[in-house]
């Protein structure tokens, strides 16, 4: 028992400027209990921990994995100590550093109010100029507002099992961020045939054309690894806001910017011309099945 | 002598400055050190963007912020002459998902805050630290919430006119099944009796035959004298309009009408440290808000009875939060049964650019009454103000006019005071939005 305890990976979950949403999202993890058998939280903002944050802030110990939540703000203190100091101290000896959420990854929501001073720990939006630049090789970004619990669960298990986590150019695991949020959306058929949603609150229609959906321009697995195990924004009729990307938060979340009534942004990797051609052709068809409600509860009883 | 204690794990941290006289708290001031600037962030933005940004004020009660936001915008529609009549279906689902957020909050509070700190205070070996019970129960509640809202935390599925989700009977069936599981889990793991039986209790004497986490918590609170400590103002506010609660101002046990327009904020009194929190007052007076306030306003027999014996003690406050959890679980079942799936999820409304005016949204969030006030000009936010429950409960004021939490901590040992502080279920991030 004793030796097993010693092999548990020691994790320190430190917070910058945050809403606590990533810490709470993590508690939704289906296999949280199993995971906690394999790791030890030196400090977590919600879960029982070996040390208090004040004790950790004294910078006398070390951790295997440093998890950072929230935007980096050089003037921010926690328990009276500059977060900058705590962050740099533990980053030095940690084997991995995980930025959870878009604030820690790119700056996110809490960069907006103080764009001059706040950033992610490695990236400042899409540029590598954060405070932990020198540790770039061991930083994994798990962007998303908040982080999906399974994305973090996956990453921790990969590290525990000593598997290599393959990253994209923005330091995000390819397994989680190589496909687009659009992938697996239940409205895909409407996207294929360019049938837009007439208004909110209907299961029919694609939200890309009018309602502001960013899913075809956003990397993430929200529609394949479902939220809370059951759903996603787009499945429940809410447009994707692009929260895993470095330019989050954008503005006018519920509207699609269009040029001549075609979305101004084309899906990632698709040329505008190809997209316009395809759209033009698809729109010439009228598929009655896709223009009617799927289920008529009122008239079929 | 003033001693500074930083309290952690309250959705952030707070600094408590204790003025001790012979090991007894003579006075205490409270400072919240972090500033995030959410209100400023909203100025100049499309009003609908508030539905994406304000949930991100808080990782544990963002859904309450979403409802407050959508209510504020719909109120601005109304004040601009374009009132929106949300369907019954949409308003019931909004109510349902809000309640589920309250439930997840309370379950986490019981197992991640109350149990460990009550153990620490009492030195009890019998009550076990089981954080996973809280996390599991909460994750079941958010699973049901996500069936309708897409995800939790940080959903934006409520929009002016209703909700974005067009769920099916398959979804409803799944939701009912998860709710059944969650209710049974709470009955087995926490209460030790069925929610119906628990809700039928009229006095704390009815607890004697129960063996459960609840029974142990109740006993330890009594053993720690919490029925005699932690009294606040004995004045309560429950302002949000909901089916599950009753809007009222309560003084002792007397109910009065309440109007959100009387809620104002003032700077906190925190002489030892810059605090970014503001105090919230009603007609210039401090009130307690949250589950105890809601139970008093709703005149639940058991809580009224406990209040008759022990007034607004820390014991009463804790009992109210647990009682409310049972009440909300039963209420969820009722709401799920009442949803008419054939109803529209979202009704049409005029384009936002036609909207100029002010609006207010008031909601009962997990920790009490939450207010959003917005001023919109041609669809664009001119100003936005958020008043959160912790601003009432954990206001920091002068010795002559203490806030609920300050009053509750005076004349006690520091250990008791720190525990009692947490019985208010403090939210640091909400307070310093």
Protein model, in words:
The complex is a heterodimer of chains A (301) and B (433). Chain A is of the alpha/beta class. Chain A folds into two domains: 2-177, NADH:ubiquinone oxidoreductase-like, 20kDa subunit (Rossmann fold); 179-291, Irregular (Cytochrome-c3 Hydrogenase, Chain A, domain 2). Chain A is 27% helix and 14% strand. Chain A is built from twelve helices and 13 strands. Chain A has helices at 2-7, 21-26, 32-38, 53-56, 83-93, 101-106, 109-112, 149-160, 174-177, 188-192, 272-284, 288-291, and strands at 9-15, 39-43, 65-69, 72-73, 77-78, 81-82, 96-100, 118-119, 123-124, 127-128, 139-142, 258-259, 262-263. Chain A is elongated, with a radius of gyration of 22 Å. Residues 1-5 of chain A have low confidence and may be disordered. With 433 residues, chain B is an alpha+beta fold. Chain B has a single domain (2-426), classed as Orthogonal Bundle (Cytochrome-c3 Hydrogenase, chain B), CATH 1.10.645. Helix content of chain B is 43%, strand content 18%. Chain B contains 15 helices and 14 strands. Chain B has helices at residues 38-42, 50-53, 62-79, 88-122, 131-149, 169-191, 195-200, 213-223, 291-297, 301-310, 314-338, 389-393, 404-409, 414-423, 428-431; strands at 2-7, 14-21, 24-31, 158-159, 162-163, 235-238, 248-251, 254-256, 263-267, 278-282, 288-289, 357-365, 368-377, 380-387. In chain B, the strands form five sheets. Chain B has a four-stranded mixed beta sheet with strand order 8-7-6-11. Chain B has a three-stranded antiparallel beta sheet with strand order 1-2-3. A three-stranded antiparallel beta sheet of chain B has the order 12-13-14. Chains A and B meet through helix 2, helix 3, strand 5 and helix 7 of A and helix 1, helix 2, helix 4, helix 5 and strand 5 of B.
Question: Which helices and strands appear, and what pairs or packs with what?
Answer:
The complex is a heterodimer of chains A (301) and B (433).
Chain A: H1 2-7, E1 9-15, H2 21-26, H3 32-38, E2 39-43, H4 53-56, E3 65-69, E4 72-73, E5 77-78, E6 81-82, H5 83-93, E7 96-100, H6 101-106, H7 109-112, E8 118-119, E9 123-124, E10 127-128, E11 139-142, H8 149-160, H9 174-177, H10 188-192, E12 258-259, E13 262-263, H11 272-284, H12 288-291
Parallel strand pairs in A: 1-2, 1-3, 3-7, 7-11
Antiparallel strand pairs in A: 4-8, 5-6, 9-10, 12-13
Chain B: E1 2-7, E2 14-21, E3 24-31, H1 38-42, H2 50-53, H3 62-79, H4 88-122, H5 131-149, E4 158-159, E5 162-163, H6 169-191, H7 195-200, H8 213-223, E6 235-238, E7 248-251, E8 254-256, E9 263-267, E10 278-282, E11 288-289, H9 291-297, H10 301-310, H11 314-338, E12 357-365, E13 368-377, E14 380-387, H12 389-393, H13 404-409, H14 414-423, H15 428-431
Parallel strand pairs in B: 6-11
Antiparallel strand pairs in B: 1-2, 2-3, 4-5, 6-7, 7-8, 9-10, 12-13, 13-14
